[in-house]
Amino acid sequence: MQIHLDKSRILRRVPREFIYQLKRVIHKMQGRTFNKREQERLIADILDTLQLNFNLTPRQIHLAYEFHRNQKRLQKFLDKD
């Protein structure tokens, strides 16, 4: 299980208890057998909950996804060097 806590990550600034609980949730979810469809629905439910609690617009959720995707691309590029 990986939780990115690099200097550039915002998760570095949240309380340690949050990180601990996040690890527990991920660990519990890994123990269950989910097919791809159930995993997609689970992520959609989590994003929906975050959207409601943080008062985010669908556009902001989409921008967050794009930001994540661009970070992945950048990491792949950096790994090549």
Distance separating the two termini? 25 Å
Question: Could you give a short account of the major beta sheet?
Answer: none
**Tally of helical segments:** 3
- In what range is the share of β-strand residues? under 5%
Radius of gyration: 15 Å
What helical percentage do the residues reach?
over 70%
What pattern of helices and strands is seen along the backbone?
HHH
The average pLDDT is: 80
User: Runs with pLDDT <50, length 5+?
Assistant: none
As for the number of domains, it is: 1
Number of strands: 0
- Structural class given helices, strands, pairing? mainly alpha
Q: What gross morphology would you assign?
A: globular
Explain this structure:
This protein has 81 residues and is mostly helical. The protein has one domain. 70% of the residues lie in helices and 0% in strands. It is built from three helices and no strands. It has helices at 16-31, 36-53, 58-80. The longest helix has 23 residues, at 58-80. It is globular, with a radius of gyration of 15 Å. The two termini are 25 Å apart. The mean pLDDT is 80.
